[in-house]
Structure formats: C-alpha cells, structure tokens
C-alpha cells in the first residue's frame, strides 16, 4: 500500500478516535461547542480577552456549558445565578483545585493555593488562625496599613511633582504589609530585595496573562520540552522561594517558642510540635510554598488594583474631586484616615468598590474542580472535573450594573446617595485576603487623595485605560502622572 494512503488512513483513524472519545466522554456533561481532535475548543477562545469569549459562548449554550481545553472537558459557569449556586450555595462541592499546569510546576500540591483535600483544609485552618492572631481584620493590622500609607505618602513627596510611573510605589506599600505579617519587618522602598520581589511579581502576572501560557496549560508537555516565557516564570518563583528559605533559616536560629514574632515563627513552632508525626503537613517545603502563596495573594492583586484605580481617578478628575471633598468633610488634612471613617464616606466606598468591579482584575477564577460526582442543573458533572467561573459575567452584569462598561460609582449608591451593597461581589471559600485587600484599598486611596492632586502628563482624552490584556488577569497599561501636594 502506498505510504501516503497509509498516512491518510492513520490520520483519519486518529481523528475519528479522538472525536469519539471526546463525545462519548461528555454525553452527560453540559452542552458546548464541538471540539477539534487534540486541540479541543482552544481556537474558539481569545487568550487576550477570555471573558468576552466565554460571554459569546454562553449566548449560544447557556449559563452552564462545556469546553474542551485540549483533550480534557472543562465546565464553565457564566452569570450570577449559576456562579452563586456553585460557589455559595454548594461551595464545598466546587471547592477542589483544578489543574493549572504551569503554576503546578512550582509546587507539589503544597501551600494554601495549590493544595487540595484535607491538606488544603488543614493548611487553610492554620493560616487563617495565625493571620488572625497577628491582627488580620483587627485594629493592629489597620495600624500597620496606616503606617505604610504614611510611608507611601513620604515616598511620593520625594518625586517633587515630577512625572513618575507609580508602579513601584503602589507595589511597595501592599508588599510591605505582607512582609510585616510574614517577616515581622518592612523594607525601605529602595531595598533591593523588595524591588526584586516587585519586579518578579509584575513580570509573572504578565506572563500568566499571555496567550503562550494558555497554550502551555492546555498542552503541559510543552512546559518541559519547549523554551518560552514559562521558563522565566518558573525561575522567578524558584528565586523567591530560595529567598524565603534563607529567611526561614534566620528565623530558626533566633526562634523563641514562647514569643512568636510573625507567621514564619508560628509555622516553625507547629513544625516542632509535630516533628514525630510522620504524616504531618507542616514541613519546611510546605512553609516555603505557603509563604510564597501569601505574598502572591496579598501583594499583586492589591498592587494591580491600586495601579488601575489611580489610573481611573486620573482619567476622571470630577470623581476624584468628589472623593477629596468627602475626605475634607469627614477626615480633614491633619489625621490619618481609619476604617471607622468608611461608614461616613459612602461616595468614597462606592468608588473603591467600582474600581474593583470595573477593572475586573481576574476575569475568571483560578481553575476549580468538583470534589465529588454531582448533579448540577440536571447535568452530571464527575468528580475532579475542572470548573471555570466567569467573574466578568457577574461584575459586568447589566441588570445589576446599568452600563457596566462605564466607570460609575453610582453603581454602588442608592437614590439618597448612601452606599449600596451588591450581592454580585462574590468571595469563594479559597479567598483569604478579601478583608485585608478592602482595608488596604480604602486606606491607601484615601491617604493619597488626602495629600495629593493627581495630574496627568498627557491630555485626558489621550489617557488610555484599556487593559494590556484580559488573560489570567486584566493587566493595566503603563502610565505616568504627577503627585502634586496640597
């Protein structure tokens, strides 16, 4: 038989088998577009705007549909009702961690972000308890944020009204808050370790949001055998973990079990308590990974939101002026803002919420997985099925937020001008930094606007607020401004 004929027949058989396996394996799953052999539906997803792609597909297949990202089925939840039912009403069944191959390479299922099952529950319980003991959600962590806000203002004053990129300053502040909790010390804004952290965080966020990473996640073999930006991502994580290991060794040498100073000390004490437990989850490698998770969750999200928020306040000076008027009326210029002020500042609180809603920082949640076989809206979803939640579909729901593509604090104000909560701000059971992030955003934004006018270096009509990409995250564009003291 001619070689070409053999190749054609072999390829045809391969395609037929792939289609048969995908279709037969997904008969009980929610509907979705027909996948291509091997590639699945990857060509139907715009890696630069995943949220829009999922929205378009939901118009055809409904709020619960199936995509094949490569050869594996993934169930997508789109819209408030479906997302709430899964994350809130049936949170335990949807609380598993789904596959994220590039990120998975940085861990062996340790920590509080990449772990699963009982390991995740135990590490989460310990971490939340320890963070609370150091003031998470309490007055002493508020003092820490207030002090960092004052340091941020002093650094911004040093720019002397010159045009500057705020990325560094708005990254250092939230990073130092986490440093205080984990290391029991903050860093000077020119400290090389701090600058290195921020550079790696910023670079990794952009890499994770790139189309190439989406390809690697769908075809994991590429991670080990192909060059690309994922190698930079993995090296950055390795470098940060090495630094954390060195800090842990320093803590071990000066540890006082009767007087823990920070998160690392508490973890080391727990390790000592369980040193004879061969099945303990509290190991040095677990501590390194957990510290890395704390920095990743507690620094980059707040930093990116601040950068994007200041850009929006720069773009809309009439909104900024209203916030500053409220600051003058409630706080004045001679004391630091505090969280008690928030209840008397409905417009400012609305602005902070609208910043988070509008920028849609994470268009989809990190991949989740079902923890058991479940029946969801008359569909059967097997245990371990990857779940993607479209957060964009919730935060940009036109029924809850009229003109969702417009930056409008009125989305969170009632007819009398009082702050209006929205159920559409959902927080799943893997979110540990929700309260801290809200505190930091309120205190950092109000402290900056209490002390400075924001002046654009370009005409406002030329100031671009479009994200660079809406992949894993909505990455804000680069910009400059002048901080002009009152």
UniProtKB/TrEMBL annotation:
Instruction: Name the Enzyme Commission number(s) assigned to this protein.
Output: 1.14.14.1
GO molecular function per UniProt: heme binding; iron ion binding; oxidoreductase activity, acting on paired donors, with incorporation or reduction of molecular oxygen, reduced flavin or flavoprotein as one donor, and incorporation of one atom of oxygen
- CDD domains for the chain: CYP2C-like
The UniProt transmembrane annotation reads: none
Top enzyme category: oxidoreductase
SUPFAM superfamilies (alphabetical) = Cytochrome P450
Pfam families (alphabetical): p450
Q: Provide the protein's localization.
A: Endoplasmic reticulum membrane; Microsome membrane
Q: Which GO terms describe its cellular component?
A: endoplasmic reticulum membrane
Sites binding heme sit at 435
Keyword Membrane assigned to the entry: answer is yes
Signal peptide (residue range): 1-25
As for membrane topology, the entry says:
Peripheral membrane protein
Identify this protein by name: unspecific monooxygenase
Q: Its gene?
A: LOC101964311
């Amino acid at each position: 038989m001619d070689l070409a004929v053999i190749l054609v027949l072999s390829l045809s058989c391969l395609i037929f088998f792939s289609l048969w396996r995908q279709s037969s394996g997904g008969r009980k799953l929610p509907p979705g577009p027909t996948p291509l052999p091997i590639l699945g539906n990857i060509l139907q997803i715009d890696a630069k705007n995943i949220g829009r792609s999922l929205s378009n597909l939901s118009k055809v297949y409904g709020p619960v549909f199936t995509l094949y990202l490569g050869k594996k089925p993934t169930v997508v939840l789109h819209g408030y009702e479906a997302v709430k039912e899964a994350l809130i009403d049936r949170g335990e069944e949807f609380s598993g961690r789904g596959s994220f191959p590039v990120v998975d390479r940085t861990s062996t299922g340790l920590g509080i972000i990449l772990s699963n099952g009982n390991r995740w529950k135990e590490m989460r319980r310990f971490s939340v308890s320890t963070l609370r003991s150091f003031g998470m959600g309490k007055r002493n962590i508020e003092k820490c944020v207030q002090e960092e806000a004052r340091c941020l203002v002093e650094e911004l004053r040093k720019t002397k009204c010159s045009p500057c990129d705020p990325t560094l300053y708005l990254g250092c502040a939230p990073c130092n808050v986490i440093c205080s909790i984990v290391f029991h010390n903050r860093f000077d804004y020119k400290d090389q370790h701090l600058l290195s952290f921020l550079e790696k965080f910023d670079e990794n966020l952009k890499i994770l949001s790139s189309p190439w990473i989406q390809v690697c996640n769908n075809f994991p073999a590429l991670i080990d055998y192909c060059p690309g930006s994922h190698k930079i991502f993995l090296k950055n994580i390795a470098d940060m973990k090495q630094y954390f290991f060195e800090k842990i060794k320093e803590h071990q040498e000066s540890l006082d079990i009767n007087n823990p100073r920070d998160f690392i000390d508490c973890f080391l004490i727990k390790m000592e308590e369980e040193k004879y437990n061969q099945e303990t989850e509290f190991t040095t490698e677990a501590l390194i990974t957990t510290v890395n998770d704390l920095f990743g969750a507690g620094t980059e999200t707040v930093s990116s939101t601040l950068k994007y928020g200041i850009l929006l306040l720069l773009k809309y000076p009439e909104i900024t002026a209203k916030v500053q008027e409220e600051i003058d009326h409630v706080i004045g210029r001679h004391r630091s803002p505090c969280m008690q002020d928030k209840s008397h500042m409905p417009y400012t609180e609305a602005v902070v919420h609208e910043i988070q809603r509008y920028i849609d920082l994470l268009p989809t949640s990190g991949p989740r997985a079902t923890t058991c076989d479940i029946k969801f809206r008359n569909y059967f979803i097997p245990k371990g099925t990857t779940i993607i939640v479209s957060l964009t579909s919730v935060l940009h729901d036109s029924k809850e937020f009229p003109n969702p593509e417009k930056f409008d604090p009125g989305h969170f104000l009632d007819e009398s001008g009082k702050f209006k909560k929205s159920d559409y701000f959902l927080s799943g059971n893997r979110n540990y930094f929700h309260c801290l992030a809200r505190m930091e955003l309120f205190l950092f934004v109000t402290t900056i606007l209490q002390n400075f006018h924001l002046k654009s270096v370009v005409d406002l009509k030329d100031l671009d607020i479009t994200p660079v990409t809406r992949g894993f995250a909505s990455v804000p564009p680069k910009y400059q401004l002048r901080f002009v003291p009152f």
